[in-house]
From TrEMBL:
It comes from Stenomitos frigidus AS-A4. Its main location: membrane. The lineage of its organism: Bacteria, Bacillati, Cyanobacteriota, Cyanophyceae, Leptolyngbyales. It is found in: Cell inner membrane. It holds the Pfam family ABC_tran. Belongs to the ABC transporter superfamily. Nitrate/nitrite/cyanate uptake transporter (NitT) (TC 3.A.1.16) family. It is a peripheral membrane protein. This is ABC transporter ATP-binding protein. InterPro entries: AAA+_ATPase, ABC_transporter-like_ATP-bd, ABC_transporter-like_CS, ABC_transporter_ATP-bind, NO3_transporter_ATP-bd-like, P-loop_NTPase. One of its GO terms (molecular function) is ATP binding. SUPFAM superfamilies: P-loop containing nucleoside triphosphate hydrolases. Keywords: ATP-binding, Cell membrane, Membrane, Nucleotide-binding, Translocase, Transport. It comes from the Bacteria.
């Protein structure tokens, strides 16, 4: 039987074959309280990601998952500790770290093509126009949106909007893709199709991904490691589950593997028994 036993949370290693790429070390994030003092949201987070690794972050609502992603994106200052990408401390946002949000954040007055082109224009300012157009076309194709390229966001379904968001993020060739519940607003069927589509893209062009999800099946299907966070305040990494299935993955085939059931049970046990939460 495959080993899915959790790694101790503070001995986090990238997968074999990957180099240490993103390093989060003793990361603390605190926010000031209105009545004075601080509330610590994230407490001593240690995590290392390989440059081709797909990691999911799972934890109860409010534990600080989005905060962690925003810190990696450089959207907020860290309180203590460090985050380094290829050895360089992250201090501000950059096109090497692109975010995809649950709510699609497309500009409604621009077409699908223009939404993607805008990002390409901003990041590859000096690239010839024809080359930028090629990049946009390649990414429209990647997410099967060529036929919808001249449509506006309000003419698209939720799944199509999210595909635009993903194409826009990938078109600027980030070193790491940060996804905050990217399928959270979609119906089950669209969600399942888009999970598969994103996984196929990732399998063909491997890059570092950090993705937040509340869905254990999604985490097992898509990621190499599942980072389970303890409850907030002062949340930290409680456990990390290694997903042993090689890529490309077949959703139905892995579901029948005993290791799948074991992983599922381990994640549920963590969330429901060891770090339960009454909302
Ligand atoms: N700018 C801020 N100022 C003060 N507190 C904040 C700020 N941003 C987030 N928090 C607090 O940090 C905690 C973690 O929030 P965060 O959104 O990161 O959690 P989450 O795990 O992503 O939640 P969910 O799963 O519901 O999206 C919450 O208690 C939240 O109220």
């Amino acid at each position: 039987m495959l080993n899915v036993s959790p790694q101790p949370a503070n001995e986090v290693r990238p997968d074999a074959g990957s180099t240490a790429f993103l390093e989060i070390e003793n990361l603390v994030k605190a926010y000031p309280k209105p009545q004075g003092g601080h509330s610590i949201v994230l407490d001593h987070i240690n995590l290392t990601l390989g440059e081709q690794e797909f990691v999911t972050i799972v934890g109860h609502s409010g534990c600080g998952k989005s905060t962690l992603l925003r810190l990696v994106a450089g959207l907020e200052p860290i309180t203590q500790g460090s985050i380094r990408l290829e050895g360089q401390p992250i201090r501000k946002p950059g096109s090497d770290r692109m975010m995809v949000f649950q709510q699609y954040c497309l500009l409604p007055w621009l077409t699908v093509r223009q939404n993607i082109r805008l990002a390409v224009d901003e990041v590859f300012e000096s690239l010839p126009g024809a080359r930028k157009a090629e990049l946009v076309n390649a990414h429209l194709e990647m997410v099967n949106l060529v036929a919808a390229a001249e449509k506006y966001p309000d003419q698209l379904s939720g799944g199509m909007k999210q595909r635009v968001g993903i194409a826009r993020a990938l078109a600027v060739r980030p070193k790491i893709l940060l996804m905050d519940e990217p399928f959270g607003a979609l119906d089950a069927l669209t969600r399942s199709k888009l999970q598969q589509q994103v996984l196929r893209i990732w399998e063909s062009q491997r890059q570092a991904v950090m993705m937040i999800t509340h869905d254990i099946d999604e985490a097992i299907y898509m990621s190499d490691r599942i980072v389970l966070m303890t409850n907030g305040p002062e949340a930290t990494i409680g456990e990390i589950l290694h997903v042993p299935f090689p890529h490309p993955r077949d959703r139905m085939a892995i579901r029948h593997d005993p290791a799948y059931q074991q992983l599922h049970a381990a994640a549920l046990d963590f969330l429901l028994h060891r770090f339960d939460r009454d909302d």
